[in-house]
Amino acid sequence: MDCYTANWNPLGDSAFYRKYELYSMDWDLKEELRDCLVAAAPYGGPIALLRNPWRKEKAASVRPVLDIYSASGMPLASLLEVLQNRVLDARIFHTEFGSGVAILTGAHRFTLSANVGDLKLRRMPEVPGLQSAPSCWTVLCQDRVAHILLAVGPDLYLLDHAACSAVTPPGLAPGVSSFLQMAVSFTYRHLALFTDTGYIWMGTASLKEKLCEFNCNIRAPPKQMVWCSRPRSKERAVVVAWERRLMVVGDAPESIQFVLDEDSYLVPELDGVRIFSRSTHEFLHEVPAASEEIFKIASMAPGALLLEAQKEYEKESQKADEYLREIQELGQLTQAVQQCIEAAGHEHQPDMQKSLLRAASFGKCFLDRFPPDSFVHMCQDLRVLNAVRDYHIGIPLTYSQYKQLTIQVLLDRLVLRRLYPLAIQICEYLRLPEVQGVSRILAHWACYKVQQKDVSDEDVARAINQKLGDTPGVSYSDIAARAYGCGRTELAIKLLEYEPRSGEQVPLLLKMKRSKLALSKAIESGDTDLVFTVLLHLKNELNRGDFFMTLRNQPMALSLYRQFCKHQELETLKDLYNQDDNHQELGSFHIRASYAAEERIEGRVAALQTAADAFYKAKNEFAAKATEDQMRLLRLQRRLEDELGGQFLDLSLHDTVTTLILGGHNKRAEQLARDFRIPDKRLWWLKLTALADLEDWEELEKFSKSKKSPIGYLPFVEICMKQHNKYEAKKYASRVGPEQKVKALLLVGDVAQAADVAIEHRNEAELSLVLSHCTGATDGATADKIQRARAQAQKK
User: Fold this and answer.
1) Strands of 245-361, DSSP E
2) N or C: which end of the chain has fewer CB within 10 A?
3) β-sheet bridge partners, residue 18
4) Cα angle vertex 440, ends 436, 443, to 5°?
């Protein structure tokens, strides 16, 4: 352990810092880092170098080259199209809304956007008297708002969207004439200021509280200054870099110093600082508490004892039992296992990870109820981390960064670098749900595959289908949309053939101007709403003739469009019928139009005449004759209104006859019946009902005697009883024929006579009917009479 802690450096009495190598860089740089504009992404992200941006001796036609490398120095991309504009400096900052950017322009004005994904630059207020670039500046994020802090000589200014205000750090050492460098912590909670007096002021980012101040005795402006502290740690330190010196300072009276052999660049991280040069890439951080407890010299922490016990166990030494007994006597075995698991997560070397995990596993064997989740998850996390830390991948995430970043973001980064096999292996190893894991990655792979223009459409479509199949969560329509965006329309159509959801196929086909194919797909789906969507699109896209011809080839679509036109576009419906020579439907259309649109009788008759002509063309003589009769009836109704007054128009033929009878115009009613060949039975029913409604019983009796009733006289009895007139009903009951006599007598309540008639007819059904009406004591004799008649009939 003494050898392991040799590179630990104490900062005061309570914190150790260590620096270890991540990679030996092999990026074959021809320039020094000082000759390049350098930027690097956090969370083990890539490095960007803009080569020779300031060299004036280069030809004006040669554009600067932007190279992007992984953290291990492997080339990822190279860009020539780099825009050069009047931007003097820029800062990327991170908030809960995303990554933002602040820009210092050549006019010494600041602009800011809170989200680079939706770049909307806001101009910040002017700084009084600012004629040149500030000596240093940074972005502070407070209360969800981004501010710019800048130094102009001995003064500090804080810019927000509304104003520029001067600020003064509390407790700043006197004699400051300039601020040379400033740095905000990774969490934007703390701020460090380097002054020309060689003092480093550290405090809260709100500039309301001073944490400490350190005199580094160096007045030369540093190249970089960044914070270096781990999450939830009380210790706070700042790393300052000059040409060949690196210094770690905090609230301790002394500092940690390192010699830099070559130009280096600092990348602040959540839990430390990455330091890379032309040859190496290192990580400097505060030693985590669990690691410090286990590895510090002469440590008696439970984790340290358990690690020694496991090593002695492998040597088959009795000391293993002694260490274990000591831990158990103190009741600290659970704590020892947890310490080893936690410390394993913070180790970069796999051998040390394994050693600590073996110790944790060894200690678990002597515990009855230690939950295995933490151990299992740590093993899984370390396997993932070791995979992405590999030199060929070059993502040197720490355990703390990985947990903050989340597995989904890490997978996104692997996908963006087209490391699909590794991303899929991680998903399968962690058993992530397919929609979140493998399916999503395969979809990204397919979207990349369609961009390979050197492969034929059929080969690409086949390869994608063979790889994806029916994988849940994969949308072929999204992949097809990407293919269409790349100018590969035929490939997009082939991919859509694999899309099982018509609702996803159709919109893209419409976008690709393949409307007729979209219509076929919509019809196959059976989704009428989808068909309507395509039809309306086609209507706007095609001329009227082509649109109608397209519909003729799709009967279902034509039927649906007709239904639509019946409610929304009647004239279009008429045009459809005309084009198809559908005279039957044209006739029906004009009949509906005669009632829906026209108010003048002449217009309605004209529309009906057009309908009749259409029906004759359709060889539907019945409909044609009926339409002509309606025309005659309309003319007659208008004449009746003119001559008699009242409302006749739009009444049916029967209602017209009834209205005439009710108005006392019996002659006209009979003439109308003769004109329209109303059968006698129907006319008698109409007149019977009308006279009964008028309660004109005298006229009704005259009418019944005018000639023999074609409907018999039982209807007279029924109508009179319906009007509650038993007296009149009895008049007609006597005239009812023998076959309906019993029913008529029962209707008027003459049960006894009904019984006599039923006995006379010797009809069992009539006898049963009469018996059903014998309900009171007065009908008892009648019932007995019927029963005797039945008995005599049975004897015979």
Assistant:
1) 245-249, 256-259, 264-269, 272-277, 280-286
2) C
3) 8, 285
4) 170
Asked if 181 and 200 count as a contact pair (C-beta separation under 8 A), the reply is no
With vertex at residue 404, the alpha carbon angle to CA 341 and CA 399, rounded to the nearest 5 degrees, is 30
Beta strands in 287-338 (DSSP E): none
CB 717 within 8 A of CB 744: yes
Q: Which of these ranges, 251-265, 498-512, 586-600, 604-618, has the smallest mean pLDDT?
A: 586-600
Long-range CB contact pairs, 269-272, < 8 A, 24+: 269/42, 269/43, 269/44, 269/186, 269/398, 269/401, 270/42, 270/43, 270/186, 270/230, 270/231, 270/398, 270/400, 270/401, 270/404, 271/229, 271/230, 271/231, 271/398, 271/400, 271/401, 272/228, 272/230, 272/398
Look at residue 777 and tell me whether its pLDDT is greater than 60: no
For residue 405, the model assigns a pLDDT of 92
pLDDT, averaged across the chain: 85
Mean of pLDDT values over 745-758: 74
CA–CA dist 495, 482 (Å, integer)? 11
Distance CA(733)–CA(737), nearest Å, equals 9
Q: What is the CB-side half-sphere exposure of residue 789 using CA atoms within 13 A? A: 21
Helix, strand, coil shares, percent, the chain, to 5: 50, 20, 35
pLDDT of residue 784: 67
Given a cut of 60, whether residue 60 has pLDDT beyond it is: no
- Rounded Cα gap, residues 752 and 626, in angstroms: 51
Beta bridge partners of 285: 18
pLDDT of residue 780: 64
Mean of pLDDT values over 560-578: 68
Give the up-direction half-sphere exposure of residue 661: CA atoms within 13 A in the CB hemisphere: 27
**3-class secondary structure, 259:** strand
Name the 3-class secondary structure at 281: strand
Q: What is the length of the chain?
A: 796
Bridge-based pairing of strands 190-195 and 199-204 is antiparallel
pLDDT digits (tens, 9 = 90+) for 77-127: 988 866 666 788 999 998 777 889 999 988 889 999 988 888 888 999 999
What does the buried/exposed string (b/e) look like for 167-184 if buried means 16 or more CB atoms within 10 Å of the residue's CB? Answer: eebeebeeebebbbbbbb
Q: Does the pLDDT of residue 600 top 80, yes or no?
A: no
pLDDT at 61: 53
- Global pTM? 0.71
d(CA 766, CA 772): 10
Residues 6+ apart with CB under 8 A from 119: 101, 113
CB-neighbour burial class of residue 621 (10 A; exposed 0-12, middle 13-18, buried 19+): exposed
SS3 680: helix
**What does DSSP say about strands 264-269 and 136-142: parallel, antiparallel, or unpaired?**
unpaired
**E runs forming strands in 153-236:** 155-159, 164-167, 179-184, 190-195, 199-204, 210-215, 224-228
**Residue 684: what pLDDT?**
79
Computed from CA positions of residues 655, 660, 664, 668, in that sequence, does the dihedral angle turn out positive or negative?
A: negative
pLDDT digits (tens, 9 = 90+) for 462-493: 988 888 888 887 888 888 888 888 888 888 88
Pair 238, 248: CB distance under 8 Å: yes
How far apart CA 434 and CA 457 sit, in angstroms, is 27
How far is residue 731's CA from residue 713's CA, in Å, rounded to a whole number? 10
CB 360 within 8 A of CB 344: yes
Q: Of 483, 469, 418, which is closest to residue 439 (Cα–Cα)?
A: 469
**pLDDT-above-90 percentage for the chain:** 40
Q: Record the tokens describing residue 174, joined without a space.
A: 């006197």
